[in-house]
Design brief:
GO terms for molecular function: ATP binding; ATP hydrolysis activity; DNA binding; helicase activity. By secondary structure, the protein is an alpha/beta fold. Helix 8 packs parallel to helix 16.
Length: 740
Amino acid sequence: MPISAFDLLAEPVRRWIWKQKWRRLRDVQEKAIPVILAGGDVVVSARTAAGKTEAVMLPLLTKIKNSQEESSGFSVLYVSPLKALINDQFRRLEDLCDQCGVILTKWHGDVSADVKARARKRPSGVVLITPESLEALLVRRPDEVPALFSSLDAVVIDELHAFIGTERGMQLQSILNRIENACGRDRISRVGLSATLGDMELAAAALRVGAVSTAKIINGDDEGNGVRLQIRGYVKGDADRDAEVSTETAQGPTEEFGVSERLAADLFRLLRGKRNLMFAGSRQKVEVFTDRLRAKCDDGHFPNEFFAHHGSLSKVEREDVETRLRDDPRPTTAIATTTLELGIDIGEVDTVAQIGPGYSVASLRQRLGRSGRREGKPAVLRMFVSEVRPGPGGHPADRLNLDLVQSIAMVESLIAGWCEPPSATGLHLSTLLHQVLALILQTGGISAPRAWDVLCGRGPFRSVDRALFADLLRCMASPDNKLIEQSPQGMLMIGEGGERVTESHEFYPVFATDREYRILHEARTLGTYPLDSPLASGETIIFAGRRWKVLEVDDGARVITVKPTRGGKPPYFSGEGGGIHDHIISQMRDILETSGSYSYLDQSATDMLSAARSAYGELGLHETRILSYGDGVLVFPWLGSRKKQTLSLAMMAKGFQSTSFGHVIELQGCDPAGAKKALQEIADGAVPDADEIVRRVAKPNVARFDNHLSWDLMSLITLRERLDFDGLPEAARRVVALTS
């Protein structure tokens, strides 16, 4: 008779399972336990709340208990993208580790120095840590790294999808490689956890560059409790506009952020009295919807149930909302951006609501998994989609109700089991620059060939050859930067400019952060506000879902003091949004060109889809992708965000006044024949010069250390990572192929 996964576990681990009164192990646990006990790299993927954490930790704790000798360092390094997730996992694993007699340590910026000092003095068991704290440990205490990590059984990477294809993911891969190098270990097992992975092979590559084939892949088949899903449609007509809340941003009137009375009433009716998550999109929309629903509570003389949650709010404000959802029996709806999308423990929620289509199916899947965790209760997701009623002379794109069509495409992809594959590894020169500085600090000085070998030859930056690495080093040493210098012995050392960069506590993160004011009410910090969105004394603002009057703006201290008031306008936050995958755009076109019905649409959304399909035919978009409009043309390329933006920039480089917005490219001052001629030239290979295209990118400095890169290096990474230059001929061919 074969041995069960349960029988493979150590006795203290089995005893803990009995204590939990589990009737059986979950599917992902049955599959993962023997594989993780065997060692090696593993990717574990299953739906949210399917028991992935236990699937990994039960066998790893078993390995610790079965070890024949006392470990002289940490046994498990558990890396998580958020401090809040670490706090949650600590609460979740504390009893299990106590039952097994294993020390559990959390380590991030909010943990006291005393706790970290004790852990460094006697490292043992499991340590939960962020990439930034791990980086600081390597840089500040390099001599302690072998003692801390030489005995590791495994590194666990939680929420793996949050790291894939990002600067932070490259930093983490580099850190883990540097740990193996410093400890003299050829390979320490890595285990990645995620609920949303579109391409498992690329996901496996996120664990260890160049080792895809060696990583074992575990897919959990727990189907959960079923799903109840609905898309509700809203048209902003004249009657709705009359009832909208009057809102303005720091940039002027913004009717699109007004909440129609019908939408507000439906949200209030469907969410009040329950425990919900509502994803509003941008931080500005979070504040507007929270304010509107809070006002409806006041109007009905109900206690407030609606609370804002986004990254610009203070830690205390966010944790108050999380605690209320998790521990307080009162009805609560958290209105959030993506901040509650990852696995922060907020307990059971009844419903997930989403405003608009969102930007990715992976995100939609993650959000859906936040409800339906209790046995016998299905996950519930409602999407609320508002479209503008096009008037006479209105924009043709408004007639296509593209937010609704995109929402349907997202749901259909979700049902089909598709989600966006991880991004392929780019050059990530900004993060490589950071890692060069970190490696120099860790080693006290290193030769250029050795640095290339650690970071590129055997590290994650394998797309960077020796010649490009030399170009980067020369750029770092240039008079404009002085980040590094070379000793007479040929060792790379930190330069004058590098000292200024690395001495700051802000050196360790590789993600860009905005310079911001703090918003204070009495002694309480409400959150932060961007410096590029100034406020003046006497102005009003909606923040943390409440209305405030600005009392004083202290530019020197970067502090805005406020007091409660009746009036208020939404805050302005720049840089919010995301790219849409080619697959979704292709689905949208198919939805418009076919006549299929969707049972999850309410009557209003069904009518809106019918109107969109009629407009698609009336505009002739079955036969052409170029329409006359005003003194120019509209191009409907039906391409994902990256390809569409590149095509728009190419048309600009050919002398057109080109604007890319929504799903359309608008060309001014031309006719369809002229637009088609230019597109045909690109399709035939007459692509504009790459430098001309790059010069038209609105914000080329995206990554944290891009400002230190030369124009040539910035051009290289912009073309490689942020545009689709090589795909331009095919993109243009797709447009002209349907143009008579």
